[in-house]
């Protein structure tokens, strides 16, 4: 047994240098691989921008020659005048104006106020087959635009919304005899704590409608999107009060309750559900890469990355839906531009 173990260790030591000396043309950074990604990398360089809202940054994609850019809307829910800055294409830094939003697709549309050649052709996501190579822009190589490859992994589908949360844990007792549902815990820093909800408060109505069942109360709250303000009626001892609460995102409010997959995924997108239609790929991207372009190997745009769901699932809005949004928002954009 001892001789066998020694032989195995010697063999592994002998093989290790051989593995590290793999010919360059067979490595992932080899010339052949770089050549395969060349068209997509060129397109990404021409159309990818960095969009800043204060200290927050995500990628954006130029989608028209007259300077329209799309980015991820939920990262810009509190845009203030003068705070939206855009770097790119290239090194140029300029201010951009918000001209439209499309909530179903989580897109914000910005106007650079100048002409820009996107440098790509519109592609087709309908015929993508599982395992097809795709290339996405990344923000991890500032100030340059990087690219990363991966494969198309799931057919276009709807991602149902998770709904908003008020940031409380509700007790098991409910019913009219108890007078509502008791709050047993308030999430620190969550919407409920900010609004003044306290442990042991008893919630008995949502938006003026009395609800005494825990499951029904949770269902009503979840039917509203994050960012929606609802009125919560509660009792505190002998006092009754109405409190307005702006709903938050579950993965932010209850960060400590993440499942194992989420804990291993690192930082995910604030909004990763509630999409009418997405395509899925396995290109490992960060939260700040959302809003960036997704290309096929010919350098044609097939989608806009919109959500990092977890460590292995990345969602993009299909290019056909992007074009439809721009068409639907044309009048709104023209009005915002003063045209």
Characterize the structure shown:
With 339 residues, the chain is α+β, with helices and mostly antiparallel strands. It has two domains: 38-158 and 268-337, Thrombin, subunit H; 164-246, Roll (Pdz3 Domain). The protein has nine helices and 21 strands. The strands form four sheets. A seven-stranded antiparallel sheet has the order 5-4-1-2-3-7-6. A six-stranded antiparallel β-barrel has the order 8-9-18-21-20-19. Strand 1 and strand 2 (56-62) form a beta hairpin. The longest helix has 19 residues, at 2-20. The protein is elongated. 37% of the residues are buried. Residues 8-20 have low confidence and may be disordered.
User: Number of helix segments?
Assistant: 9
What is the CATH architecture term of the largest domain? Beta Barrel
Strand content: 25-35%
Largest sheet: 7 strands, antiparallel
Which percent range fits the helix content? 10-25%
pLDDT average, as an integer? 85
Stated plainly, the CATH topology of the largest domain is called Thrombin, subunit H
Q: What is the CA-CA span between the terminal residues?
A: 83 Å
**CATH C-level label of the largest domain:** Mainly Beta
The stretches of 5 or more residues where confidence is low (pLDDT under 50) are 8-20
How are the strands of the largest sheet arranged? 5-4-1-2-3-7-6
Please provide the ordered H/E string of secondary-structure elements.
HHHEEEEEEEEEEEEHEEHEEEHHEEEEHH
Rg, alpha carbons: 25 Å
Number of extended strands: 21
How many structurally independent domains? Answer: 2
- The 3D shape can be described as elongated
Class per helix and strand makeup: alpha+beta
């Amino acid at each position: 047994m001892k001789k066998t173990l020694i032989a195995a260790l010697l063999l592994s030591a002998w093989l290790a240098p051989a593995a590290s000396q793999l010919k360059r043309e067979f490595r992932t950074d080899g010339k052949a691989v770089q050549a395969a990604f060349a068209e997509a990398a060129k397109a990404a360089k021409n159309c990818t921008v960095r969009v800043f809202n204060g200290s927050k940054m995500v990628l954006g994609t130029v989608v028209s020659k007259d300077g329209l850019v799309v980015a991820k809307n939920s990262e810009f829910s509190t845009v203030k005048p003068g705070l939206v800055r855009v770097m790119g294409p290239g090194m140029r830094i300029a201010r951009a104006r918000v001209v439209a939003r499309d909530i179903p697709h989580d897109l914000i549309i910005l106007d650079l106020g100048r002409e820009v050649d996107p440098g790509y052709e519109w592609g087709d996501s309908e015929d993508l087959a599982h395992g097809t190579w795709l290339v996405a822009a990344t923000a991890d190589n500032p100030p340059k635009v990087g690219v990363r490859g991966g494969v198309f992994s799931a057919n276009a589908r709807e991602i149902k919304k998770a709904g908003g949360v008020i940031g409380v844990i509700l007790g098991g007792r409910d019913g009219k005899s108890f007078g509502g549902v008791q709050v047993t815990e308030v999430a620190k820093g969550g919407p409920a704590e900010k609004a003044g909800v306290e442990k042991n408060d008893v919630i008995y109505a949502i938006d003026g409608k009395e609800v005494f069942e825990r499951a029904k109360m949770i269902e009503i709250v979840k039917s509203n999107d994050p960012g929606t303000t609802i009125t919560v009626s509660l009792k505190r001892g002998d006092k009754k009060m109405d409190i307005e609460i702006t709903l938050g995102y579950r993965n932010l409010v209850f960060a400590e309750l993440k499942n194992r997959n989420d804990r291993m995924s690192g930082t995910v997108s604030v909004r990763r559900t509630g999409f009418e239609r997405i395509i899925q790929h396995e290109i490992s991207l960060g939260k700040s890469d959302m809003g960036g372009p997704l290309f096929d190997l010919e350098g044609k745009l097939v989608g806009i990355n919109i959500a990092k769901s977890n460590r292995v699932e990345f969602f993009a809005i299909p290019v056909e839906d992007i074009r439809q949004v721009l068409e639907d928002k044309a009048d709104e954009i023209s009005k915002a531009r003063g045209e």
